[in-house]
Design brief:
There is one protein chain. The protein has about 375 residues and is of the alpha/beta class. It has two domains: about 250 residues, 3-Layer(aba) Sandwich (Rossmann fold), CATH 3.40.50; about 70 residues, Sandwich (Immunoglobulin-like), CATH 2.60.40. The chain is built from seven helices and 16 strands. The chain has a nine-stranded mixed β-sheet, sandwiched between helices. It has a four-stranded antiparallel β-sheet with strand order 13-12-15-16, with no helix packed on it. Strand 12 and strand 13 form a beta hairpin. Helix 6 packs antiparallel against helix 7. The longest helix has 23 residues. The chain is elongated. The protein starts with a helix and ends with a strand. GO terms for molecular function: carboxylic ester hydrolase activity.
């Protein structure tokens, strides 16, 4: 009897763990990548007591007021002869999705990429100190092991260089980056957003070269926006919103280390994207559910209104679970009848287990 109880406990724990992961990802959908996101935001400047870094000129921190810390953070710097206002829309966007954002100016409008990279590292030092400042609303609220950098034009080149200078950086978002003769030996996952018709930093002379100069061992993605110009990635709305959705998913996946965003990228945003004229990728991420094309079992249509057809060679059993791990239905799939009838179940998400493989099924 003790052995039976032990076996039952192990099965319960396995199911609970698996379905807790699935339930955790329920709210992570393409529709959840909104602008703005779900959280209210506020700002901090040097007038509020934040550090005045010596390697940059002026800063604004955007942070969520009703999210749950600890937060990941990103530092953003503008491009050549440009003010922070040129990239300021990224601040409230990221913050409204729970990522604290510091946007800085440069000591000189003519600073080159290397100086902008150093400025980004100085901005991250400000975030570390803000995490320890007793009068700050962010005291103790930042995860200082989850920092990212970003920038536009020469600032994008500077973001790549910052990752070379500091290997603790967990992610890079380069916005139409400009950097000649790039030396980019780093292992920080990098997203490069470029514009097909960029006259200032043509992709063939900058973004594409940056992608190739980044080691193949580094997770990397290049997304070229069709008909995009040099400012197509200055806001999350670029490429009809694709720019913001991809950047947010990249940071959530690699900086926050939330694997729920892996299928959002691979199965949604990068699957024949209408906004792209070119996509190059070399990255691996962990899918939390099994895809049809990764096994010899297929399940369709999905979403469905009633019947799910199963493509499998042999007779097998199946179980249908709720998102809470409750067994809803079970049965056998014979060699002649391979359908699961969900018509009498409410419209929601279910997990169908077949031959030790689990499929997420949406009932409309």
């Amino acid at each position: 009897m003790k052995k039976i109880y032990t076996t039952a406990l192990i099965l319960t724990l396995v199911l609970f763990t698996n379905f807790s992961l699935f339930a955790q990802c329920e709210d992570v959908t393409l529709a959840s990548l909104t602008n703005p996101g779900p959280f209210e935001i506020a700002t901090l400047t040097e007038a509020d007591g934040i550090r005045n870094g010596p390697d940059y000129q002026g800063a604004t921190i955007y942070y969520p007021t009703n999210a749950t810390p600890p937060y990941a953070s990103i530092a953003i710097v503008p491009g050549f002869v440009s003010q922070p206002s040129s990239v300021e829309e990224w601040g409230p966007f990221y913050a409204s999705h729970g990522i604290v954002t510091i946007i800085i100016g440069t000591n000189s409008l003519f600073d080159l990429p290397e100086a902008r990279g150093i400025a980004l590292l100085d901005a991250l030092e400000t975030m570390r100190q803000e995490n320890n400042r007793s009068a700050s609303p962010l005291e103790g609220a930042l995860d200082t092991n989850k920092f990212a950098v970003s920038g536009w034009s020469m600032g994008g080149g500077g973001a790549q260089r910052a990752a070379v200078l500091d290997n603790s950086i967990k992610g890079v978002v380069a916005l139409c980056p400009y950097l000649l003769n790039p030396q980019l030996q780093h292992d920080s996952p990098v997203l490069i957003l470029s514009g097909e018709n960029d006259p200032t930093a043509p992709p063939a002379q900058h973004a594409n070269i940056h992608y190739n100069a980044t080691p193949n061992s580094t997770d990397k993605l290049l997304f070229e926006v069709a008909n995009g110009n040099h400012s197509v990635a200055n806001t999350p709305n670029g490429g009809n919103g694709a720019v913001g959705k991809i950047a947010l998913s990249w940071l959530k996946l690699y900086v926050e280390q939330n694997d729920c965003y892996c299928p959002i990228l691979t199965e949604n945003l990068l699957d024949n994207p209408p906004a792209a004229s070119s996509v190059l990728s070399s990255f691996e991420c962990e899918l939390l559910s099994v895809s049809d094309n990764e096994s010899n079992i297929g399940i369709f249509p999905n979403p469905t209104q009633d019947i799910v057809n199963v493509s499998v060679k042999n007779a097998v059993s199946y179980q249908v679970y709720s998102t809470m791990g409750q067994l809803i239905k079970e049965g056998e799939l014979s060699t002649s009848i391979k359908q699961i009838d969900l018509s009498n179940l409410p419209a929601t998400i279910y997990y169908v287990k077949i031959a030790n493989q689990t499929f997420k099924v949406i009932k409309k």
